Amino acid sequence: MPFVLRRIGFYIVAFCAAAVINFLIPRLMPGDPIDFMFAKAENTLPPEARAALLKTFGFAVGPLHEQFLAYLRSVFTWDLGYSVKFYPLTVSQVLGYALPWTVFLAGTSAILAFSVGSITGILAAWRRGGAFDSVASPLALAVQAIPAVVVALAALFVFGVALKWLPTGYAFDPKLDPGWSPQFIGSVAHSAIMPVVSLAFVHIGGYLVTMRNNMIGQLGEDHVVMGLAKGLSDRRVRYNYAARNALLPSVTAFALTIGSVMGGSLVTEVVFNYPGLGRTLYVAIVARDYPLIQGQLLVMTLAMLTANLAVDLAYVFLDPRLRRA
Amino acid sequence: KAILTAFPTETTAFVANFNPFNTSTRLSTVEDFMYEPLVIFNVLQGGKPEYRLAESFTYNDDLTAVTFKIRDGVKWSDGQPFTANDVLFTFNLLKAHPELDLNAIWTQIKSVEVDGNNVTIAYNAANSGLIYKLVQVYVVPEHTWKDVADPATFTNEKPVGSGPMTEIERFTPQEYMQCRNPNYWDAANLFVDCLRFPQIAGNDQTLTEVTKGELDWFGAFLPDIEKTYVGLDPDHNAYWFPGGSMVVFNLNQQTKNAGNKAAFNDLNFRRAFSMAMDRQAMVDIAGYGYPTLNEYPSGLGAAFHSWNNAKVDTEYGQFSKYNLDAAKQLLADSGYKDVTGDGFVENPDGSKIGFDIIVPNGWTDWVNSVQLAVEGLTQVGIEARLSTPEEGPWDNMLKSGDFDVGINSIRGGVTPHFMFDLALYSANVGKTRQAASHYSNPELDKLLDGFYQTSDEAEQRKIMDQIQEIVGRDLPYVAVFNNPLWYEYSTKRFTGWFNAENPVARPVVYGGVPERVLHLLALRPVTP
Amino acid sequence: MVQQSNLVEVRGLKVDFMTTTGLFTAVNAVDLDIRRGEVMGLAGESGCGKSTIAFALMRLHRPPAIISGGSIRVDGEDVLALTPQALRRWRWRKVSMVFQSAMNSLNPVLTIFEQFRDVLVGHTGMRRDAARARAEELMKLVGIAAARLDDYPHQLSGGMRQRVVLAMALALEPELIIMDEPTTALDVVVQREILTEIMALKARLGFSLLFITHDLALMAQLADRIAIMLKGLIIEVGATRQIVEAPEQSYTRALWDAMPRLETLS
Amino acid sequence: MTPPILELVAASKTFRIRNIFGGEKSVAALQQVSLKLDEGRALAIVGESGSGKSTLGRAATGLFPLSSGQVLFRGRDIATIRGRKARLKHRRAVQMIFQDPFSALNPAHTVRHHLERPLRLHHGLSGVALGERVAGIVAEAELDPNHTLDKYPHELSGGQRQRVNLARVLAVGAELVVADEPTSMLDVSIRRSMLELIARLKTQRGLSLLYITHDIATAHYIAEETAVMFGGRIVEWGPSREVIARPAHPYTKVLLSAVPNASERLDGDSAAAAAFAVEVARVRGMAKEEIGQWTEVSPGHYAAV
Amino acid sequence: MSGSLEVIFRNKKAVVGLAIVLAYVAIAVAAPWITEHAPMQRVGRPHEPPSMDQLLGTTRMGRDVFTQLIWGTRTSLFVGFLAGLIVTVIGVTLGITAGYLGGWVDEVINFFTNIALVIPQLPLLLVIAAFVGQASPMVIALIIGLTSWAWGARVTRAQTMSLRRREFIEASELAGEPTWRMIAVELLPNLLSIIGFNFIGSVIYTIITEATLEFLGLGDPNAVSWGTMLYNAQTSSAIMIGAWWEVAAPASFIAVIGIGLSLINFAIDEISNPRLRTLGTVAKAAKAQRAIDRARVDATAPEA
Ligand SMILES: Nc1ncnc2c1ncn2[C@@H]1O[C@H](COP(=O)(O)OP(=O)(O)OP(=O)(O)O)[C@@H](O)[C@H]1O
Ligand SMILES: Nc1ncnc2c1ncn2[C@@H]1O[C@H](COP(=O)(O)OP(=O)(O)OP(=O)(O)O)[C@@H](O)[C@H]1O
Ligand SMILES: [Mg+2]
Ligand SMILES: [Mg+2]
Question: Where is the ABC transmembrane type-1 domain (chain E) (predicted)?
Fold first, then answer.
């Protein structure tokens, strides 16, 4: 079977597998959405009322296999039912609201981490063993080993609470109305600084070290030496001869870290009260909002798959050896 | 415009749900502010009725029916008149949709009838306390609700209300603004034009919001409040934490674990348990000193001290005070011994005692209280562990009886009867989380029944004395402290706040306390 | 006569490698002259330091290699004293090089043309289309269709890549081309083809050639003079005929003796 | 009559290469190759790079299954050898020296490990006997017994590695050795002595040898017969001297003419060079055509022309 | 292989990293002797700042931060190493099996590995941890161990496949080695650096992830670990009210062990990768070259 077809096939099957896992997990969790919904109510619900509620909120009832069929249908129609926690919003509405924020947060910080990490990695490798390398590389490692939670908390305390330089919560100033006004965009950017930077911070190290080691490998390659012999500028050799080749493994690493960026963004979102998928998932878990949890995992898996697909494509683009038709 | 910024409860995102019958996700400002109650019973004033949409209420002679007279000239926010028919409609709505009737009103009433301005509600049995539940039914306008197909899932996006604040002027998940009702009947007393509600998700965020100085009225737990809040602006920032619901440990007398059941059904074990509770530490350490100590054997609580039966204190008071030695002694005297040598006692018959104390995950002050309880219990030789299910399962376990020991709170009412009834009335077992001790005592049931069958205060006091006697003696739950009512305010932009010097009514801004309408009406903007 | 003047003068060249166990001297006090227009052969066993000399000539060594002594003059210019900028301009213009593994010395992610352009634009500042024309011309020179300029290296066969590198080495018409075992990875037939081409180009363009190999027979076919290396030292230099027929050093003689020869059979 | 020690009958091997877009290319590395090797003799396989020499060698040892055809070892099809005992026995009899000496040595183990394993496995040696035997083999391969044994492969030069590979195969005591360019990285002098060592083993032990090389000059040194491969096929086969002296197939001719010859100057502009280029192009073109008719050029010397 | 010990000790990063990790292990082992209190015992007022009595101050509940930190080390290291072990064993087994056997076995394993790779880790862990309900450190270790092997499996597989193509495997096959020996003796030693890398990486990941899960409130409040310490600090808003020690202690402890382990990993990389191994000499040589160049310029300058 052709590689591309196999790859696409894989994505489809992976998605289905993820869908099955998503189906099972919340169902295995203790507690029932209605209990959570009405935990604050004074009395136990009469069974009829309970059944009525289950039905009105569209929670699956009946034997597992019927639930599964209903679930499958909902996956493909993207009708994931109501969120318990955010009723009357549907799961797709909640996710639709949260998704852009996470894409923005995780995406910006992944790109930031990737570019900063890769560029510093390139420089460290270029003067390998030099002062910059000896300081930056171990430092990068050190940073990488600090949990996102710690970084986020520290940033929150220093820049938000102590120095009051940056907003400490929200995706934008709540007094503003969302829109394309410069004021609003400015506010979004301003509010994003801390979450984006603190999330990127922990991932820079990984890219730096990967890039540095790949670069060091590349720098010994003949084509790089030839680049130098050809009398090209250091810059050109560094970026077009060494880095472009060294980038390939980093790109795979990029795909793999999308997951950890998403994981990290969960914590960051919780700490900074950022309205993305991560915080929503956290809330959904605490509230046992099954439909929402399911939708979340589905979307996150989909995001991972998309990222992987993108990386597959980027790979073909970056490495002409793979491009032969 | 006088805009007051308030923060009633933590949320992760606001969702536009203005259906007062949906307890799960309706906004906390729908009750009272958008839909005003007929009558507000001012708990701090011994349950004095403040007539709102109703002008008065009267009982029939044998206390089996109550008649509300609806106030003249009240209008819905869209200008339509508010009538007795709206009340009738609402009650009928609950009857037709039991899932909306969360207080199970219709299990206790027979009928609702309208006669001109009067609405008469007939009870199944004599009851002078049911009215407190009846006024918690928020009346909705018939003209907009009659066509609602499914009132349980209805979100009431264009709310038409009767309260002071009905107009939603701005709505985002991060903030919304609820503004004055153009047709408010009591507009003469309303000086606040809009309420602004920012979304705040947790303690840390509350603290950072607080430092911005934008919050005027809120009810939040703030650690070290003197420093973290008052200290920020000592001239304006202030707080007042009157005692609220009673916090108890429920020893489930019908637990499925035989060894634990034997122990929990032994009064001496319960007394030893109670003496192992370092209540002061729970208040001071777990609660930052905000809760009110509760060493009443019956758990009556300082707020109801006027009802106190002093005899109960002298007779049983020792069992409600922290005393590890006495607890150990009592256990030893009652035959509890450590036969297995694990450092923990077993039942006199040798069966094992060992239990989890369940507390909702993340309710830190309670979690810490339970940890203190475990510390005390461990020291007297009782094996106890902390367990933190999520709120939902915790609630479910307390209701269903599938647990050993849990920490729990019992809502206070206008009179102490309300909480004793909730927690100990045998018919409530299995129905409400508050009856989690799964205790049943026919003698007590009779007294509880009798309390509201009379409206004679002397008679009621006598009954209450007896109730306290039984509860204090029997120790069906172990009361430890009363939760504070959370209330912080700033006088920078508004004055007229309730506080210890001006204790007009319960001052909180969060739901479940209808007196907040009275508080809102008492506020005046500071004119610069 | 031009023929006789020295293009390259290497004096007392010493190259060390810093290793974990200490300094390792790979090339020790080597003197070497290359005349204009001549083919200088450098032969010797594997690991004796041939490539190290080649790298030193272009000052391509990077740590852990250290050019720790001696001087290199090319066309009268002291290569070791050039500033980095001057060195960059000097490389490839005066001296270019075909690497030991020429097949791998093309950048796999750039098209052949882009790699030509790097050289042409970088050194002469010529416009893109001029560079294109020049690249096409060079490709024709080594017998590859100009259309292949837009291919990536992996799309060419080993022999073609070898030729592309050769064409690139000619791009700026340098005075010296260093060829470090340019054909070891190829079979004799392809080797013969390429070498024939190189010799034809040399005849036409007149550059000098430093030809490095351990194949003595091949060396004898090409070189005007031959230098024999042993363990970091040049032990013998002489005209090809002399080295082949009357070697002075016993090592050189041993080399010849051990070489299996076909002609003895026929 | 005893069967030949190795016989290939119409052996073919096709590799499939997939690219990421699913395009599939197949490379016919071996096409209908038949050959015979008698015990105690050596057959040299020469040919251009990529003509399938290594593939043929690997096929002969049974490292991969053929696409079609048979490999017979002492008359028995090696594909039919079943069971660990029988396979071990076959393994012992047939050994291979790989083309790339570095990748054939395990970077994690010392030279000693590489030499001891086959001795333990096939000869059950241990203790002092093992030590002695190892020392003997090391000496045979002209490796320094004091320093070499405890080195790791990356600490050896290419030539040393090739000798370790050779020594290891000798350790097994094989009857048939497939040697894939076993001396390509050796200095001429050492190369010479290694070839002599192989030749000695051939006469002393009756070792049979399939000697793969592209250096036709060394082929006649040890191999009585030489086969020329071109484009996955054998195109010429005969006594080594005959093949070198009187090449019949065009490719053999080109190959021989291209072998560097110290007494012949190579300069670019001669007509000979042009003629060579034309001839090479013509021969390359032939690779795509069907193989010619086998004719016996001289006794025992066949060519497909 | 005494030579490799020497290599390790020559590598400064390895030495520092090892020293850090060994110090932690020592702390974990000696916890009962280092501390005088039980970790959950109240020893003072809430949030007492560091003093001679309470070296690192007290928590909101008046417990000794130092004691908790020491006992937390035990828990966190145990969790880290247990999960690291599980991850490595599963990853290596699957990776080698897939890479060595190839064919449909590889297809199947690779398929599941890829799926495991695209399911977002932390969210999944979060859900499972919530499902398990107050997950004890042991349970967290198991969950992480059982869900995080994919990366290791993928890398091991890739490396195995590339080794498999190397001829020394074929050579030992020709020498008649049995399969198990080929895997255990010929293949495994070549994978050691990857396995070590994977193991240490997993330990870091687990320690961080455990702390994160607990920080989010999904841990067992009875457990004493760095994560629960952070959680307790967070719920009592320690940062906001200036009780920095309650956060700083576990945070820096996590960071330092993370750094130690990373350094070891870095060193493994350097030691096993010849290109990185020589970096020290590269720097030295660069310095020497600069000195020589300067001398050369100085020597020519007077002439000019
Ligand atoms: N980076 C390095 N570090 C240490 N030693 C090195 C390094 N590069 C080369 N050497 C050593 O320097 C010596 C000369 O190497 P060089 O590459 O010049 O040999 P050569 O004559 O070109 O050999 P070959 O014919 O195999 O290419 C060798 O002994 C080699 O081991
Ligand atoms: N495993 C394989 N997969 C795909 N193609 C292969 C494989 N092995 C060999 N080939 C192809 O088969 C052909 C013959 O290869 P082989 O290695 O036998 O050549 P060779 O004659 O040994 O060449 P050389 O002299 O360069 O070693 C080549 O085109 C090669 O690319
Ligand atoms: Mg060389
Ligand atoms: Mg080959």
Answer: 73-265
Closest residue (by CA) to atom 19 of ligand 2? D50
User: Could you report the per-residue pLDDT of B199-236, keeping only the tens digit for each?
Assistant: 887 777 788 788 888 899 998 888 888 888 998 899 99
Q: Does residue C17 have its Cβ closer than 6 Å to ligand 1?
A: yes
Q: How many CB pairs under 8 A join A and B?
A: 135
A257–chain B nearest CA distance, Å: 27
* Nearest residue of A to residue C59, measured between CA atoms: A229
User: pTM score, two decimals?
Assistant: 0.82
For ligand 2, atom 13, the nearest C-alpha belongs to D29
Read off the pLDDT of residues B252-283 as tens digits, 9 standing for 90 and up: 999 999 999 999 999 999 999 999 999 999 99
CA–CA gap between residue B197 and residue B181 (Å, rounded): 17
Q: Report whether pLDDT(A177) > 80.
A: no
Alpha helices by DSSP H, listed for B279-338, are 279-281, 310-316, 324-333
- Of the ranges B17-31, B169-183, E38-52, E123-137, the best mean pLDDT one: B169-183
Query: Does residue D156 contact residue D164 with C-beta atoms inside 8 Å?
Result: yes
Structural domains of chain D in order of their starting residue, each with its CATH number: 6-304 (3.40.50.300)
Q: Which is nearest to A199 in space by CA: A264, A258, A291, A293?
A: A264
CATH code at A122? 1.10.3720.10
Q: Does residue C47 have its Cβ closer than 6 Å to ligand 1?
A: yes
Is residue A18 included in any domain, yes or no? no
Burial of B62 (0-12, 13-18, 19+ CB in 10 A): exposed
Between β-strands B65-70 and B109-115, what pairing exists: parallel, antiparallel or unpaired? unpaired
CA distance C43 to C214: 5
The predicted structure's pLDDT at residue C43: 85
Domain that holds residue A118: 99-324
Ligand closest to CA D45? 2
Decide the pairing of beta strands D42-47 and D225-230.
parallel
DSSP conformation letters of D237-264: EEEHHHHHHS--SHHHHHHHHHS--TTS
Nearest to C244 among D216, D245, D262 (CB): D262
Tell me the two tokens of residue C8: 């390259």
Q: E2-272 — its CATH code?
A: 1.10.3720.10
Identity of the highest mean pLDDT range in A48-57, D213-222, E63-72: E63-72
Topology of the domain covering C81-265? Rossmann fold (3.40.50)
Q: Does an H or E element contain D96, and which?
A: strand D94-97
**Chains touching E by CB (3 or more pairs below 8 Å):** A, B, C, D
**Given an 8 Å threshold on Cβ–Cβ distance, is B202 in contact with A273?**
yes
> Residue C96 and residue C178: Cα distance in Å, rounded?
6
Whole-angstrom distance, CA of residue C131 vs CA of residue C121:
7
Taking the CB of residue C19, how many other CB atoms lie within 10 A of it?
12
ipTM for the predicted complex comes to 0.79
